[in-house]
Amino acid sequence: MMYTLPGRRAVLGLFLVFLLLPIYWLVNMSFKTNVEITSTMSLWPQHPTLDNYRVIFTDPSWYSGYINSLTYVVLNTLLSISFALPAAYAFSRYRFLGDKHLFFWLLSNRMAPAAVFALPFFNLYSAIGLFDTPWAVALAHCLFNIPLAVWILEGFISGVPREIDETAFLDGYSFLRFFLKILMPLIAAGIGVAAFFCFMFSWVELLLARTLTSVNAKPIAATMTRTVSAAGMDWGVLAAAGVLTIVPGAIVIWYVRNYIARGFALGRV
Amino acid sequence: MTLGLENVSLVRGAVDHLRDVSLTLARGSLNVLLGPTLSGKTSLMRVMAGLDAPTTGRVLVDGRDVTGIDVRKRSVAMVYQQFINYPSLTLFENIASPLRVQGRPQEEIERRVRETARLLKLEPYLGRTPLALSGGQQQRTAIARALVKGADLVLLDEPLANLDYKLREELRAELPRIFELSGAIFVYATTEPSEALLLGGRTICLSEGRALQTGETPAVYHRPKSLRVAELFSDPPLNTVAVEKRDGSVAYHGGGTAPANGLYAALQDGPYRVGFRAHQLAVADGTGKTAATAANGHHVFPAMVALTEITGSESFLHLRRDGANWVAVLPGVHEFLPGQTLEAALDPDDVFIFDIEGRLVAGPAGS
User: Is B250 within the bounds of a domain?
Assistant: First the structure.
């Protein structure tokens, strides 16, 4: 028998409202006209309109922001996972000189503020012609995402008994075939979680993304901040852009929702 | 093929896992590695398989040195104590996996997997994944995968240790038949003397990384070369007592003197250690009738009952005698009161006598 707090549901309900209010307000605004937003306070749109969304989907300066962001985010996620997988396997299965220090050093990379790296990256990428390309941002984000992915995947790989590797080798599997056919299906959840964390970091990171791009690869977050100052206050369009920025994360999180907790524990149960 | 190990040692850091092991395993033989945990059974198997390279020494297959050759290039299969299967594949694909890697044609794979599955009674489950099965079925899957590829060397590392009693009995009874059908060299590691006796074949007694004695299983059981071998090949644990032979009589440590008859007769005067298994120790049963008495030359001691364990068909009687614990086994159910004193008797022709270095100097004849 579990003892329940009286009014437990009410407390939870209040908390939920508190959490969802800003998001609701954003959605609310995105369906309003600018006049309604600035003149009255209404709990729901009095004259619902899709114009704000129409602007975003038709104006190249808006939708190219999404395309740019998605391009470097996907690039970064693919790069991070494909480099982190073999590294995580090595950290999990082999002992080599300085492995523990190297492993910790990887994580400590994440402790450095992005601002520290903005200048060297800017200078370096300008020099080699990567500036203002999706690759610039994708590679820069690897600095933060590969260590995280290595940590998460190492935890998941260490959860697979070493005997499975040995059995596969005794069965005659080549290393690559074992890795692709046996190991990767076993840590599919871990790969999903690691990919999610890479995706989320890269998607919301603003500083490096803005510094390393100007026109051609301008990410959506930068477009949003620049609009505030340039085109006066187009609140409705801005709100619609905000809603659309939340959507990809929500979609990705849906697929890994059952494993997220293990991801936060860096794959360690 | 024959498998030979020449002076194999395995050192990891400061720990000696194997010390100077030399063995020859014949074609089609069943070999039991018997030893307590940490005696080096798994290390030895890993060296045999080629998963670990020995620190010194050589591994020979048909006289050819294969030390350091990759496991993929050897004809070896291994079953672990934990149930190791590929969780993402169905049972069929699990068993088929070595054949798939070898690139066999589909109909051959189909035929051989079904044959092996039938042998191990796995046919109804071929479409399931391993984690949907019981422990016994999972382990049978691992055994099937080891058998299906027709490896020359099949290593089983305590395959039944993690199974419950019933399943263990069932699988254990099937194993010798399965071994016979395959014709490979089998190596079976276990901590249990009864398992070694049940499987037969040859036994290699391991202790602290050394192969102490190798031979036909019954021969090793009946004629342990040393106290250590007798100890690890006895379950319940070997009873021991220190004795001193002097002037035609034997003084048992902790009280009791008897004439030096039986095996003691031929010994020189001096200190010895006597070992005897539970069934070699007779006790007076509940009715007070002594099975063996001093009158027919047996050595009789008073001993105190500490505990009786009843399994149903047998009773294990734990006796306490001057700080030492002895165990006797009696057929049927017997109730003794703890603290009760009764008479325990040894047949002087049916004990193992070791010198103070632990070498066997006299043992029961015949067997």
Answer: yes
Entry pTM: 0.81
Q: Is there a contact between B71 and A170 if contact means CB atoms under 8 Å apart?
A: yes
> Are the C-beta atoms of B58 and B65 separated by less than 8 Å?
yes
**Cβ-defined contact of B88 to A185 (cutoff 8 Å):** yes
CB contact under 8 A, A164 and B72: no
3-state secondary structure A17-58: HHHHHHHHHHHHHHCCCHHHHHHCCCCCCCCCCCHHHHHHHH
Residues of chain A with pLDDT under 50: none
Q: Which of B174, B192, B224 is the last residue of a domain?
A: B224
Residues B190 and B288 in one domain: no
Domain boundary among the residues B224, B247, B268 is at B224
Residues B220 and B301 in one domain: no
Q: Is B211 in the same domain as B250?
A: no
Domain of B41 in residue numbering reads as: 3-224
A170, A173, A182 member nearest B78 (Cβ):
A170
B288 pLDDT tier (thresholds 50, 70, 90)? very low
| Structure confidence by residue, pLDDT tens digits, B43-88 | 999 999 999 999 999 999 988 898 888 888 888 999 999 899 999 8
B82 has a chain A CB within 8 A of its CB = yes
Which residues make Cβ contacts (< 8 Å) with residue A167, sequence separation at least 6? B78, B80, B84, B86, B142, B145
Residue B262 lies in a domain: yes
**Could you tell me if B301 and B344 are in contact, meaning their C-beta atoms sit under 8 angstroms apart?**
yes
* ipTM for this model: 0.82
Q: Which of B85, B88, B112, B152 to mutate to test the interface with A (most CBs of A within 10 A)?
A: B88
Give the model's pLDDT for residue A107.
Answer: 81
Domain tally, chain B: 2
- On whether residue B321 sits in a domain, the answer given is yes
pLDDT of residue A230: 54
> Which chain B residues touch A172 with a CB distance below 8 Å?
72, 98, 101-102, 149
Question: Do residues B172 and B51 share a domain?
Answer: yes
Residue B144 and residue B122: Cα distance in Å, rounded?
9
Q: Residues of A at the B interface (Cβ-Cβ below 8 Å)?
A: 161, 163-164, 166-174, 177, 182, 185-186
Give the mean pLDDT of B330-337: 83
Asked if residue B134 and residue B49 are part of one domain, the reply reads: yes
Helix axes A8-30, A235-256, angle to 10 degrees: 130
Angle at B316 between CA B314 and CA B318, to 5 degrees: 165
Tell me the pLDDT tens digit for each residue of A9-44.
Answer: 888 999 999 999 999 999 999 998 887 887 888 888
| Distance of alpha carbon A95 from alpha carbon A85, whole angstroms | 17
Note the pLDDT tens digit of each residue in B129-171.
999 998 888 998 999 999 898 889 999 999 888 877 877 887 7
Same domain assignment for residues B108 and B179:
yes
Fold of A60-264: MetI-like fold (1.10.3720)
